[in-house]
Q: What sequence folds into this?
């Protein structure tokens, strides 16, 4: 009889009151260690490696939007010094050529943006330039999406995006950098 | 009168806290899932540039991180101050990238291999010469999807 009594006492419920405390402790640990770092960046597709250099001189010069960045982080766009802030609008005008000028791209599909930098160029400048060029294309795509589909480019289905990219293809070619300082 | 009194006397049971652990556990699991414990310790100073045309990286498990920047203060005595590349938690030369990428590929299912992305986290002040060397090695090893890490902001 006495044994039975003991057993009954053992099988009493475990007090779960401290469960919340334990959980809180763990929760606070994870709260502190968490860094919700949203990984963001500019996606780029590099050209496959080949030993032969593409010769840009074969292209019609009116279709090439050449951007040169020197080791002082200064820009030379189609032979003229330019500020980064003007680059986006300038590039957009070149690609679309709304007035049909003789010296700008024949049509958007033929436009090629050629980016060349020095080995001494700062990465910050390079990325800013790249960002502006990409931004020019993004804005053009957005404008076209707005006109043709009354939607933002980002919200379009895949085939509509492709249709837009067929009309305004993104071509940014990067030449081997020049080495003027022996870096 | 007496009716009112009775009601008041009845309505003072303590709020049950029995569901508190459940709520806390729910939060706990949320943070456990969201937390990414960084597996490599940074040995180079990286302050990524600001850009506006950003996209989120999709498959985080398929991303290879490469850090380029000046070595941190405590490594400068033996490594100097020239920009260096860090793969995993070691300093590396750009020429070691193909082997590194090959090793990464082995751990990825065949159908996902073309979705692999190399995320370059490069410091503002690094010059393009070094980055071009890295990019050349990436092209040689067939890792063509690249992401230039940057933080959101307006370029002045």
A:
């Amino acid at each position: 009889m006495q044994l039975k009594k003991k057993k009954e006492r053992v099988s009493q419920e475990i007090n779960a009151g401290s469960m919340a405390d334990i959980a809180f402790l763990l929760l606070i640990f994870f709260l502190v260690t968490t860094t919700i770092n949203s990984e963001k960046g500019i996606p780029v597709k590099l050209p496959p490696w080949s030993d032969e250099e593409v010769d840009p001189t074969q292209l019609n010069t009116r279709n090439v939007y050449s951007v040169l960045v020197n080791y002082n982080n200064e820009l030379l766009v189609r032979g003229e010094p330019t500020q980064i802030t003007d680059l986006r609008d300038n590039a957009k005008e070149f690609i679309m050529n709304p007035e049909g000028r003789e010296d700008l791209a024949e049509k958007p599909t033929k436009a090629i943006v050629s980016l060349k930098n020095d080995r001494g160029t700062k990465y910050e400048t390079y990325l800013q330039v790249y960002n502006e060029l990409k931004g020019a294309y993004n804005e053009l795509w957005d404008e076209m999406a707005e006109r043709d589909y009354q939607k933002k480019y980002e919200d379009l289905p895949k085939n509509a995006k492709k249709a837009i990219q067929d009309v305004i293809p993104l071509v940014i070619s990067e030449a081997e950098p020049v080495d003027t300082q022996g870096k | 009168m007496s009716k009112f009194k009775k009601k008041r006397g009845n309505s003072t049971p303590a709020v049950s806290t029995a569901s508190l652990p459940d709520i806390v556990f729910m939060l706990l699991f949320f943070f456990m899932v969201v937390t990414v414990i960084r597996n490599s310790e940074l040995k180079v100073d990286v302050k990524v540039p600001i850009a506006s045309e950003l996209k989120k990286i999709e498959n985080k498990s398929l991303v290879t991180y490469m850090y380029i920047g000046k070595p941190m203060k405590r490594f400068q005595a033996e490594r100097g101050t020239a920009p260096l590349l860090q793969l995993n938690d070691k300093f590396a030369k750009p020429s070691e990238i193909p082997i590194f990428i090959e090793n990464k590929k082995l751990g990825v299912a065949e159908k996902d291999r073309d979705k692999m992305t190399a995320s370059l986290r490069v410091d503002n002040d690094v010059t393009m010469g070094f980055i071009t060397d890295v990019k050349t090695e990436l092209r040689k090893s067939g890792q063509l999807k690249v992401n230039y890490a940057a933080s959101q902001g307006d370029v002045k």
Strands of chain B lie at 44-45, 50-51, 55-56, 63-71, 84-87, 90-92, 117-122, 145-149, 151-152. The helical segments of chain B are 2-10, 20-34, 76-79, 97-106, 128-140. The two ends of chain B are 74 Å apart (CA to CA). Chain B touches chain A through 54 residues (CB under 8 Å).
